[in-house]
Design a protein that fits this description.
- It is a single chain.
- By secondary structure, this protein is an alpha/beta fold.
- Helix content is 40%, strand content 12%.
- The chain has a four-stranded parallel beta sheet with strand order 2-1-3-4, sandwiched between helices.
- It is globular, with a radius of gyration of 18 Å.
């Protein structure tokens, strides 16, 4: 459980995310948007724990003053299924949920559910980050590497996570996870690929 359910909420905007990598990624993104000081980011600690952690979160001291409650999770195999899963959890907690992903409902608090990588696509944060660096020369080397191992019938279970690791290994100072890569600005936070998630976060204003 960590300190999740006992750490008081001190801000009027709460953003619940799937894990530590997402916490680090969104800290950088919110800082770029000038929103970091307004948002209390909560780590759900895994996609299977939303059902358990969201009801705990809404009972946490300070939540009664929250004006905006946003939840982000990965689409994995189905963005629609991911959205419905979070929407159902929120409904059971008595919230007026949005009718579709990546927008906000009316009411107080207003509720938003963002499913990564966005646009209703399958995938996860790793896919979104890789999109931001698709024009980076290092990605040509990453793609060549995976063409090479494919010819040798080597198949990583999660190709996006594997590509992230190879890309990060090519950086000036190697880090071993996507969140630390965000802190190092190894992902392109100016990329147009982040337009949708930035628009979602700008609803915090």
């Amino acid at each position: 459980m960590g300190n999740f359910e006992v750490t008081p909420i001190t801000k009027k905007i709460v953003l619940a995310v799937e894990g530590a990598d997402e916490v680090n990624f969104f800290k950088v993104l919110l800082r770029q948007l000038g929103l970091e000081d307004l948002v209390d980011i909560k780590d759900i600690m895994g996609r299977y724990l939303y059902k358990e952690k969201i009801p705990l979160l809404v009972k946490t001291s300070g939540f009664e003053d929250v004006k905006v409650f946003a939840i982000v999770r990965d689409a994995d195999k189905s963005a629609e299924s991911a959205f419905k899963s979070i929407a159902n959890i929120l409904k059971k907690s008595g919230f007026n949920v949005p009718k579709k992903m990546n927008v906000f409902s009316s009411g107080s608090p207003k509720i938003g559910i963002y499913v990564m990588p966005g646009s209703g696509e399958q995938g996860m944060l790793e896919d979104l980050c890789l999109k931001t660096v698709k024009g980076n020369p290092a990605m040509k080397c990453v793609d060549n590497f995976f063409e090479c191992i494919k010819k040798r019938k080597i198949e990583p279970k999660n190709i996006s996570k594997a590509k992230v690791q190879v890309y990060l290994a090519a950086m000036p100072e190697i880090v071993n996870c996507i969140g630390l890569g965000a802190q190092k600005k190894y992902w392109n936070f100016e990329s147009n690929e982040l337009s949708d998630i930035k628009s979602f976060l700008n609803n915090f204003r």
